[in-house]
Specification:
Layout lengths: L1 H10 L1 H21 L11 E8 L5 H16 L5 E9 L2 E8 L5 H12 L12 E2 L8 E8 L5 H17 L4 E8 L3 E7 L1 H6 L4 H11 L2 E9 L2 E8 L5 H5 L2 E4 L5 E3 H4 E7 L4 E5 L6 E7 L5 H18 L5 E7 H31 L2 H8 L1 H16 L5 H5 L3 H4 L1 H14 L6 H28 L2 H4 L3 H36 L9 H19 L1 H20 L13 E7 L6 H15 L5 E9 L12 E8 L11 H15 L4 E5 L1 H11 L5 E7 L2 H15 L5 E6 L3 E10 L1 H7 L3 H11 L3 E8 L2 E8 L7 H5 L2 E3 L5 E3 L4 E9 L1 E5 L2 E10 L4 H15 L7 E6 H31 L2 H8 L1 H15 L6 H30 L4 H11 L1 H14 L1 H5 L5 H33 L10 H4 L15
Parallel strand pairs: 7-24
Antiparallel strand pairs: 1-3, 1-4, 2-3, 2-28, 5-14, 5-15, 6-14, 7-12, 8-9, 10-11, 13-17, 16-18, 16-19, 17-18, 20-29, 20-30, 21-29, 22-27, 23-24, 25-26, 28-29
Helix pairs in contact: 1-17, 1-19, 2-13, 2-19, 5-10, 11-12, 11-35, 12-19, 13-19, 16-17, 16-19, 16-35, 17-19, 17-30, 17-33, 19-30, 20-34, 20-37, 21-32, 21-37, 22-23, 30-31, 31-33, 31-37, 32-33, 32-37, 33-34, 33-35, 33-37, 34-37, 35-37
Length: about 1050
């Protein structure tokens, strides 16, 4: 069938070439419309439920809010994990689903479970976090002005800027933080309130009753219908002050302004924003809807931001702080530069080896065809164009099929004068003869990528797109080789005048002479090659292993943690000091600090946590350090030495957010200790941290601080409450009004909505000050709060974290200068030996290590199956077990080259390196097929075994060298690149470039001897007249006739 397809391609070559042009036009469209991002989105399918719980401590939030929500969501179909954080006033519960779950279906399931859930009166209705991901924060900006206050800027951001950005297609949310959130505050004067014999509840009730509208339906008058409405909503601070609470004994109305001061103030803040160490700022973070094209969304947001800037008042500037398109552009530039250089190198190598620029052009035309098929496949399978999917394509692999066919044509037609139909007929016969083996060889290379398709979790999301893209590209290369290349060959490439460049002929002559010794001392060569394999494996094992090399994004995130008891104002001062320290580094361009949490608390942290987004200058301008790890270490040391009470860890924006969504932690390794008692968990975590600090390669070690939050607790005395006639609700209303304020309704300024809150701040920020607050008894008397409650100051938890409904404390570790796997193995053995866990407690190791271990376990099952399939395909092709074994023996030798290559460059084993090994195995098998097929062809032609091996191996030298050098040098730009994203490509490319050169040398020196051993006693089939006269028989003298 393949031979017939080749013949048909040549007969209809005009139509075939026209189809080729049309296909390339489709490829241009596919490239322009392909979704682009820097990296694949590895975020799990998850739904986060955020619930406010005003005034509740972490323990109360856990007991009354988090636990009921966890119980309601337990057993949701498709859920695989559950995490929660309970903080003062906030509950965040996250349910993680199987990767195959549709996010909208998952959210619907969660909403159904939450329906009808009973929560405390102080809790807000549960809300779902935006449908975004670890790559969702695509754009961040600040709003600044010297002529406007922090409250004016925040109001402008919330009501003039954010609504316009939310309208951009692909934007799911704009999270705002910083400045002062405007509120109308009724600040009660306790003395005046007491003088009028009133309580806080009287003020609250009066304001709620006065701030209403009413509808009265409609009335008909004559032939018109009039709507009846009552308008009583408050519209200003003066109106609030004019609300009557009640009349006095003298029938004089007591108004709100008689007992309180009505002001426009700022809401109680849970977080602040700072910029460049100069002071506070107001910021907005644009979040992208899951599954959207980040390149298009960021571009649209940028355009809208420019439009918004023109509408802002004079002096107000909207400054872009973080733009994902910067990193995407740098990464895409790296990929495209490497691919373009790869095409150039492949073309040059082909011209040098083939001695024909026309032949080189005909072969290289297969690259855009293969890429077109790959891009169409990416559209079909929903694969994003990014560093992983596009960065692993080696154009050398895509031209192997056309190279084999062209080599056969050159060898069979060199020096012959063939034109017109004669050329078409000869080319068709030769190409048809090698079509089946070429298809087998390319299919085997496609098969070696199957293990990547079997990966799950994070590793699957990272490497499955690579496998899909490469498989589609190889399929496109095969389509070109069989369906298009024969027609292009006839139209473009005349028969060669000679057999090739003279230097190659000389090299083949030298190799032919050397083959006699190789065959004679075959056992020594084979033993030496496998000794090289053993040595390579031994020294490579010393390199250790990691999941994926760290990608330098061009920016940093400096996370600062402090004592859990710190106030927001104190944290703000330390934040500004840390930013000033960072600006002493010439590498730092700008900084933006985020202390505490935003209004949409997708990251539920407290005052003790600050994330500093540090924009860095280009790497070539750095003077303090040469790489990111060194600069990170200097950031950490200088801040911790100059800003007291801080613990610093350094990460990167995408890395930071993705790690947090995957495992709940931002660290390379997380050690979680599960149990029930928080003090005991904290003690065990401290012991674990002490052990891992002593392990070589340990960078940052942080124990999660869950204790030490100072708390003023008011415990009711029910006997006294009954004696005084005070309800618990009334007693606690005084506490609620002391700081947070009691909400009594909204006030509108045109379309803008602001809250009205009643506050009764204590005289001093102590337990005694709160005890001086007063409540009203049923007899109308005002008594101090201390008369009905017991006030104590103590320490409680700052936050309670749970996984799968069990309390946990985490030890986070970032590594410096050591591979992940060896560090975890050493640290785990140390912890197991030194920190025994009580009954009911357990420890789990996670983070990037968990991803690597899961991938390793998965590959241990899939790789043997794939290896068996490859051997089965070789057996089906050769119909000879010994030949199949001889070719298959090249696979471990190819791995030896890859291991030596990585060792020479000091790179540990990683999943990208594993992909390089996979590619090496595929090319080694292809070259083995070429050599073994030529040897068998000569044996079938009745040559002696030694003659067939020496003559056949020398004859295919050019084909073997061309495919190997093209494959190796096609990856050379990736192996040497230093630009954005090169870290992931380097292990893969290094394994292929160095590994291919070493493994090809081993192939040329070892395979002849292996064939000599395996083919001893080989009996060629008896020729038949039909076979002898078959038009598909390969012409004598054809180079790699893989029949």
């Amino acid at each position: 069938m393949l031979q017939a397809l080749v013949q048909a391609s040549i007969r209809a070559r005009g139509a075939v070439i026209a189809t080729l042009v049309l296909l390339l036009c489709v490829g241009v469209w596919a490239a322009k419309t392909l979704p682009i991002d820097a990296l694949p989105d590895v975020s799990p399918v998850q739904v986060s439920v955020l619930t406010g719980a005003i005034g509740l401590s972490p323990v109360e939030v856990e007991r009354t809010v988090t636990t009921p929500i966890e119980n309601a969501l337990n057993g949701v179909p498709g859920a695989v994990d559950q995490r929660s954080v309970s903080r003062g006033g906030l509950s965040a519960v996250t349910v993680i689903f199987k990767d195959s779950t549709d996010i909208w279906f998952a959210r619907q399931l969660v909403l159904e479970r939450l329906r009808g859930l009973e929560l405390p009166a102080s809790a807000t209705a549960p809300e779902l976090a935006p449908v975004s991901s670890g790559l969702g924060e695509i754009f961040q900006f600040v709003v600044r002005s010297k002529q406007h206050s922090a409250m004016q800027l925040r109001t402008m951001l919330d009501w003039d800027i954010v609504p316009k950005l939310r309208n951009v297609p692909g934007v799911v949310e704009v999270n705002t933080m910083g400045g002062e959130l405007k509120q109308f505050q009724v600040v009660i004067d306790r003395a005046r309130l007491k003088a009028h014999g009133m309580a806080i509840a009287d003020v609250v009730g009066a304001l709620r009753a006065a701030n209403v509208n009413a509808g009265g339906g409609y009335i008909d008058r004559r032939e018109e219908s009039f709507t009846v409405r009552g308008q009583g909503m408050l519209t200003s601070a003066d109106e609030i002050g004019s609300v009557m609470i009640r009349t006095s004994a003298q029938n004089t109305p007591v108004l709100v302004r008689h007992v309180a001061e009505v002001t426009v103030g700022a809401a109680l803040r849970q977080g602040v924003i700072t910029r460049n160490g100069e002071g506070e700022a107001v910021t907005g973070i644009v979040m992208m809807l899951l599954g959207q094209n980040s390149r298009d969304v960021v571009q649209a947001v940028g355009v809208r931001a420019e439009q918004i800037q023109k509408t802002l008042p004079a002096g107000v500037k909207l400054d872009v702080i973080y733009d994902r398109s910067d990193f995407v552009g740098r990464t895409l530039s790296t990929v495209l530069k490497n691919l373009a250089e790869g095409v150039g190198i492949v073309t040059l190598v082909l011209i040098i080896f083939l001695g024909s620029w026309r032949g080189a052009v005909a072969v290289v035309l297969g690259i855009p065809v293969a890429m077109t098929i790959a891009l169409l496949g990416m559209h079909v399978f929903g694969v994003t164009g990014d560093l992983m999917s596009l960065g692993a394509i080696d154009f050398g692999f895509l031209v192997d099929g056309p190279i084999v066919i062209l080599e056969s044509v050159i060898a069979a037609t060199a020096g012959k004068k063939l034109v017109g139909a004669a050329r078409a007929g000869a080319y068709g016969e030769i190409a048809g003869a090698v079509a089946r083996p070429v298809a087998f060889a390319v299919a085997i290379i496609m098969l070696v990528y199957v293990p990547l398709l079997a990966l799950e979790g994070v590793e699957g999301k990272m490497f499955r797109p690579m496998a899909v893209t490469m498989a589609c590209a190889l399929f496109g290369a095969l389509v070109y080789a069989i369906a298009f290349f024969p027609a292009v060959l006839v139209a473009l490439v005349p028969p060669a005048k000679g057999h090739g460049p003279r230097w190659l002929e000389y090299l083949a002559h030298v190799y032919a002479n050397a083959l006699h010794g190789i065959v004679r001392f075959r056992l020594a060569y084979i033993a030496g090659a496998f000794a090289v394999f053993g040595f390579a494996g031994w020294i490579f094992a010393q390199q250790g292993a990691e999941f994926v090399p760290r990608i330098f994004e061009g920016d940093a995130v400096v996370t600062i943690r402090r004592a859990p008891s710190i106030s927001l104002d104190a944290a703000l001062k330390l934040d500004l000091a840390a930013e000033k320290v960072l600006h002493t580094f010439p590498e730092v361009k700008t900084t933006l600090g985020m202390t505490g949490r935003a209004e949409v608390a997708t990251d539920p942290v407290g005052n003790d946590n600050t994330d500093l987004l540090v924009r860095l200058r280009p790497l070539e301008e750095w003077t303090t350090a040469k790489d990111f790890d060194s600069l990170s270490e200097q950031f950490k040391n200088k801040i911790e030495s100059q800003v007291p009470g801080t613990f610093v860890s350094v990460s990167q924006p995408i890395e930071d957010r993705t790690n947090e969504l995957i495992s709940g932690s931002r660290a390379d390794v997380q050690i979680q200790i599960f149990g029930t008692d928080l003090p005991q968990l904290a003690e065990l975590a401290g012991k674990v941290a002490a052990q891992v600090r002593g392990v070589s390669g340990t960078g940052d070690v942080r124990v999660e601080r869950v204790l030490g939050a100072p708390t003023i607790t008011a415990s009711v005395d029910r006997g006294r409450l009954a004696r005084y006639g005070v309800r618990v609700e009334d007693a606690f209303a005084a506490i609620s009004a002391s700081r947070e304020g009691v909400p009594v309704g909204p006030i509108y300024e045109e379309e803008r909505r602001f809250e009205i809150r009643v506050l009764a701040p204590p005289a001093s920020p102590t337990a005694d000050g709160i005890g001086d607050l007063f409540v009203e008894t049923q007899r109308g008397e005002n008594i101090p709060l201390r008369e009905v409650v017991e006030l104590t100051e103590n320490e409680g938890p700052t936050a309670i974290r749970r996984e799968n409904r069990m309390r946990a404390i985490r030890v986070d570790v970032n590594l410096r200068g050591r591979d992940l796997v060896s560090w975890v193995n050493e640290a785990r053995s140390k912890v197991d030996a030194s920190v025994p866990l009580p009954t009911g407690y357990r420890a789990e190791w996670g983070g990037q290590f968990e991803n690597f271990a899961r991938a390793q376990a998965r590959l241990a099952i899939v790789l043997p199956v794939v290896i068996g399939l490859i051997f089965g395909m070789l057996l089906g092709m050769f119909q000879n077990v010994r030949l199949a074994l001889a070719v298959f023996a090249l696979v471990p030798l190819s791995l030896a080259g890859g291991m030596l290559g990585l060792t020479l460059r000091g790179m540990p084993f990683s999943l990208p390196a594993a992909v390089g090994f996979i590619a090496l195995g595929g090319i080694a098998v292809l070259n083995g097929v070429v050599m073994a097929s030529e040897v068998r062809k000569r044996l079938d032609a009745r040559e002696s075994l030694d003659e067939a091996i020496t003559g056949g191996c020398a004859h295919v030298l050019r084909a073997v060298l061309t495919t190997a050098v093209v494959a190796a040098l096609g990856f050379l730009p990736m192996a040497t690149a230093t630009s954005a994203g090169a870290e992931v490509q380097q292990p893969l490319a290094t394994a292929v470039v160095i590994g291919m050169l070493i493994s090809t040398l081993l192939t040329l020196l070892v395979l002849p001897g292996v064939l000599r051993l395996c083919l001893k006693g080989y009996r060629p089939p008896e020729p038949t007249p039909e076979v002898a006269s078959s038009p598909g028989t390969a012409p004598a003298g054809m180079s790699p006739a893989l029949t």
